[in-house]
Structure formats: structure tokens, C-alpha cells
Amino acid sequence: MLKKWMFVLALCLLPQMAFAGEEYEACYRKAKDDDQIALCMKAETARVLKDIQEIYLNVAKHEKTSEWNNGNGVIRGNLKDMYDHFIAYRNRYCSLYEVASADTFGSSSFHKESCMLELTSDHYKLMHRIIIDANTGSEESDEDH
User: Fold this and answer.
1) From the CA atom positions of the chain, what is the Rg in Å?
2) If 0-12 CB within 10 Å is exposed, 13-18 middle and 19+ buried, where does residue 42 land?
3) How many CB atoms lie within 10 A of CB 101?
């Protein structure tokens, strides 16, 4: 019964994570409870974060955004500050969310990891939008990722 409810909850989250990796989907299908699902989400968050780091590298190299970053790459400058602040915000917000959700359905690890994945996925979409705009200047949809 618990897995059934987790599946329903995940269906609510999955449209936002249309680019979820195959490993995440396979892990999720095998999970027997919400703590195992939380481990799947944690691994997927790490994967998405690596994709975000790649986007930051591309933004740092791009001629349109390099000047904004003071030409500092991702080691220092505006991009480094933005990344560090995003990680700090995400971690604190999800820690608060975990505490606030303590008396709701699901384990605390499920609440924390679902929050981490959602915020990380949202940040990916925002950063991906910057790359699209910097490269094309068009209004292409980022639904394909």
C-alpha cells in the first residue's frame, strides 16, 4: 500500500522531471519503500547536479556571459557565487522542508530528497534556458530535456 501512495506522489513530481535518467526510473521501479525511493532521488539529484556543473562551465566559456562573470570561469566570480548560493539555499530550504513535513505521509528522507531533486531539477531548467538564449537568442522550448 505504501508503495502505491509513493507511486502516486512520484507521478506528481515526474512531469517536472521529464529529463529523468534511465537509472533513476529503473531504481524507482525496484524500490520497495519510500526510504529506497529517497536513495533513488538522491542519486538522481547528484546526476542532475553534474549536468548543472557542465552548464556552468559552458556559461563561463560563452562570449556573451563571460564578461558578466568577470572572465573568472567557474572557480571564482559571479558564477561561483551563484552556484554556492544556490547549493546553500537548496540545502537549507530542504532541511526546513524535512522538519516541516515530519508529521505528514512518508519518511523524512523521502521528503528531504524529493525537495532536493525538485529544486535541483528546477535550477537545471533555469540554467539550461540561459544556454539556449546565449546560443540562439530564440524562444526555443526547454521541454526536450
Assistant:
1) 17
2) middle
3) 17
